[in-house]
Write a structure and sequence with these properties.
The chain has 222 residues and is mostly beta strands. The protein is built from four helices and 14 strands. Strand 10 and strand 11 form a beta hairpin.
């Protein structure tokens, strides 16, 4: 499961690294939670385009948008089997930008939060899917983060991790005309643990109401 992450990297750095068009201003986000709007990158066939979508996928056939709370993640192993994800997996794939994600490990009676980042401290991209729900007053665009089995670094904390795509696969993942299911699923594997780092953070991240740089700071806990 991936239920909380951050994106507190300067916008020019993001646009330079991921080469996308985005005409709005981004706020620093230290503790992004489900149901909130997040930065998503798609393709118009010629260029990468950034937009904001609500985190928690709402299928177009759903009668209630509350289903999105149960759809913040999609398991890589069953994307082409589940009704909610089968169609977006073919045509509505996206990148969801992050510079760190949180997971919690049970220690005695408490849960210690950890932050997973890249060793080079650069932002990265989750593999995601998006949808459009049009049964309301205006279209609602939503998305989900794909998860896979853990790598050696994450498995000590959680039994799932978000799919982090290498830059070499961005264009293929965003290509709406490419629908080789087996090839696409082959991209949805645990990220190289040698390129990642982890450290404990304060329990203030437990509440999504806490949105400050303190969420990113390491604690002395081991």
């Amino acid at each position: 499961m991936c239920g909380r992450f951050s994106l507190a990297t300067e916008q020019p750095i993001l646009q330079d690294q991921f080469d996308f068009i985005f005409n709005e201003e981004l706020d620093y986000r230290y503790n992004i939670a489900p149901s909130q709007n997040i930065l998503v990158i798609g393709s118009n066939g010629q260029e990468r385009v950034g937009t904001k979508m609500q985190w928690g996928l709402v299928p177009p056939w759903s009668k209630d948008t509350k289903i999105g709370f149960k759809m913040i993640n999609a398991r890589a192993e069953t994307l082409d089997e589940k009704v909610s994800f089968k169609q977006p997996f073919k045509k509505k794939r996206c990148l969801i930008l992050s510079d760190g994600f949180y997971e919690w490990k049970k220690q005695d009676k408490e849960k210690q939060p950890y932050r997973f980042i890249m060793k080079d401290r650069r932002p990265f991209a989750f593999a995601g899917l998006w949808e459009c729900w049009d049964k309301g007053d205006k279209p609602l665009y939503t998305c989900t983060i794909i998860t896979t089995t853990p790598n050696e670094l994450t498995k000590d904390v959680h039994d799932r991790m978000p799919v982090i795509l290498p830059p070499s696969e961005y264009d293929l993942w965003l290509d709406r005309d490419f629908n080789d299911t087996e090839k696409l699923k082959s991209l949805l594997v645990p990220f190289n643990d040698q390129l990642m780092d982890v450290y404990p953070v304060s329990s203030i991240v437990n509440s999504s109401k806490n949105e400050s740089a303190k969420c990113l700071e390491p604690t002395n806990s081991l």
